[in-house]
Structure formats: structure tokens, C-alpha cells
Amino acid sequence: MKIKAILLVMVGVMAANSGSAQFNEYKYIIVPKKFDAYRKPNQHQTSTLVKYMLTQHGFNVVYDDALPPDVLTNRCLALMTDVEDTSSMFNTKLSILFKDCKSNEVFRTIEGTSRSKEFKEAYKEAIKMAFVSFDAINYTYKPSESTEVSPKDEPIKISFKDDVKTVEEEKKSKVIEQEATPENQTYKSVEPTPSNYTKAESSAAETLYAQPIENGFQLVDSTPEIRLILVKSSLENVFLVQGGPNGIVYQKEDTWWWEHMENGNKKLEQLNIKF
Predict the structure, then answer these.
(1) CA distances from 191 to 3, 209, 266 (A)
(2) Which domains does the chain have, with CATH numbers?
(3) I need a surface site. Which of 75, 80, 96, 108 has the fewest CB within 10 A?
(4) What does the mean pLDDT of the chain come to?
């Protein structure tokens, strides 16, 4: 047992030495309330245990439903945690993973294990063993060009505020409603009534990349900057919009559309989304 413990510490120290610089680039670490490996939120107290252990190692840790304003505008300030659970009938085994805003794996802990028959105790032991990987990490947040943008280098933001044109009818036709009887020869002109519906001009060259998040996707551009957050609805291929004007994003005939209100007018914008 002593030899095994020493080997675990050595592996943890080597992983930590290689991971210190990578963690220093990130201001926050995000812990989901429910890891994908489990059916229920905080099952086996995994979320609270991981958040507690990270906090003990000096990280600024937040839950995925309570993100700070700067993370909402720049998702690349934070790493997202995940749990890879390879438990068997007799052993609890897991590793903690850390991914950046592009879902690239940045760091992975050693595999923590436990033979305890009680789930709560087994996951507590396994998570603590996995965090041996952090014993030699000295975390100090040091912004880098890839995670934080200075004001002078801030990317140009595209605005559609003044790039809207009213949909005009190419041809107006008059419809005649006529009562053809000897006593009455009447007609009524039925012409189209003006509408406040407008269609926004979209940038055909701009591509937004859909990155999976809890209950939906976040759409980022090539900067990368989060443009919209899509929350799943009860309808297929229909999403509620957060992080922008309230509205919906939906798919129609292989094309994605963003419909929302602006200054009392309905706007319909075509989106080029890569999933």
C-alpha cells in the first residue's frame, strides 16, 4: 500500500508540474450541477466535492448556473470540469477532466479509485485520490492573449441595428369582392395592409460554431466570442435565446433563423450555424 501511495503521489506531482502553466491562463473553473456521467444533479455529491476540492487548491470556482458577467461575454476565461467515470461492480474509478471553451481537453487527473461499498464514501475517496494531481500546482491567474482581450485589441463587433430594410411588396394587386345580383352591384377593395415585419440583412460569410453547454448550446464566432446562448425548448430544433435580444432560434428547410423583437419591430435573421 505504501508503494502504491508513493507512486500515486509521484504521478500526481508530474501531472501537476505539466499543468500549472495551463491553469494559470484561466480566471475561473466551472463545475456543472450535473455531470454527464450521472443521471441526477450532484449525484453521489460529485459536484459539491469537486467544487470544494478545487476551492481548497486556490481556484476561483463557480457553478454552471451562476456564471460571472465576464464569463458570459468571454467563455474562454474559464475551464469546464467533467468526470470520466469507469466504475465497475466492485470498484469506484474516476478521473476529473478540464476542457477549454473549444472543448479541447487541457488537463486530466490521475484515476482515483475506491473499494468502499457505500457510494457516498467511495466517491469521496476516489475524488480525493484524483486530486493528488493538484498537490504541486501553484495556481496564479495570469491573463494571456488567448483568454483575455485588451481594449485596443478588442474584436470588432457586428451590429445589425442600422442594417435593416423593410420588406416591400413588389406588386400590389386589388381584389374585388362583388355581389352579382340585379338589385345590388357592390364591390369592396381588399388591399394588403402595411406590416411592421422586417427582415434583417445577415452576414453570409460569418459562421457561428455551436458548442454544447448545459441544456443547449452557445454560439461563438471565430474570435472566439459568445454571440448567443441557445436553451433547449420542448420542440425539436427550436431554442430560446439568452445573451441577446429575447427571441427564438429555429430550423426551417435546412436553414437556421433567429426571430426577435427590436424597437417594436419583428426581425428575422438568417444564421449560419456549424454544429
Answers:
(1) 88, 43, 22
(2) 2-134 (3.40.50), 155-275 (no CATH)
(3) 108
(4) 77
In this prediction the pTM is 0.50
If you search the block for the grid coordinates 435593416, which residue do you land on? 164
Query: Could you count the other beta carbons within 10 Å of the beta carbon of residue 121?
Result: 13
Q: What's the grid cell of residue 29?
A: 473553473
pLDDT in tens, 141-185: 988 765 554 444 444 343 444 444 443 444 444 444 444 454 555
Angle between helices 46-56 and 119-130 (to 10 degrees): 30
